Amino acid sequence: MLGFTAKQTKWQAFFAVAIALLGNITLATVAQSEPQQPRQLPEAIALPNGTHFYGQAPQRDQLAVEYLVFTVDQGRVQGAAYHVQSEYACFTGTVAPDTLQLAITDPYTEEVSDYAIALQGETIIVAGEAQRQTSLKGYHALGELGELERSLLAACTTR
Predict the structure, then answer these.
(1) What are 129-135's contacts with CB under 8 Å, separation 24+?
(2) Does one domain contain both 89 and 141?
(3) Which of 56, 93, 123, 140 is 20 to 30 Å from 36 by CA-CA measure?
(4) Tens digits of per-residue pLDDT, 44-86?
(5) Residue 56 sits in which domain range?
(6) DSSP 145
(7) Looking at the domain assignment, is residue 42 inside a domain?
(8) What is the pTM of this model?
(9) What digits encode the pLDDT tens for the residues 99-130?
(10) Is residue 10 domain-shared with residue 78, that is, in the same domain?
């Protein structure tokens, strides 16, 4: 039994050294083959001031689809999250680099829950000029507000 333990330890040590040597050779080869370039940090994505209307579907007034209507003023956010023919919840928050940070108030219990939505940006060409367009990940921009969206926004921003 003592001899078996010694052999097992010797083989374990051999494999550990072999793996370490192969790992170092592989890492050294990769390091030599790829020139080091400075990493560029991604440009921060932000939502512009104004009124925004988004839905998880590309069409408005769909049942069982979440919609968000909100205003942005100097990085501060106020608005409502709702489903058609259902309840709504008011929220406040901030536009952080790459995310919309929200505090959503439950309409029944007044309990506040934190929620974050990723922002995504892309550069588009409009009339020959590059413009930065920002949207909410998982949501579609829906354009002009209807009567329902205006009333929900008014109810949530007059608090």
Answers:
(1) 134/45, 134/46, 134/47, 134/48, 135/54
(2) yes
(3) 123
(4) 567 889 999 999 999 999 999 999 999 999 999 999 999 999 9
(5) 50-157
(6) -
(7) no
(8) 0.68
(9) 999 999 999 999 999 999 999 987 777 788 77
(10) no
Residues 129 and 58 in one domain: yes
What count of residues does the chain have?
A: 159
- Token pair 């309409």 in the structure block, residue: 107
Are residues 125 and 72 both part of a single domain?
yes
| 16 assigned to some structural domain | yes
Cβ-Cβ contacts under 8 Å for 52 (sequence gap 6 or more): 68, 69, 70, 71, 72, 79, 141
54 in Cβ contact with 141 (< 8 Å):
yes
Q: How confident is the model at residue 43 (pLDDT cuts 50, 70, 90)?
A: low
Please indicate, yes or no, if residue 27 is contained in any of the structural domains: yes
Nearest to 44 by CA among 96, 95, 97, 94: 97
Tokens 């990493």 belong to 39
CA dihedral 80→64→150→142, nearest 10 degrees, is 100
Residue 41 lies in a domain: no
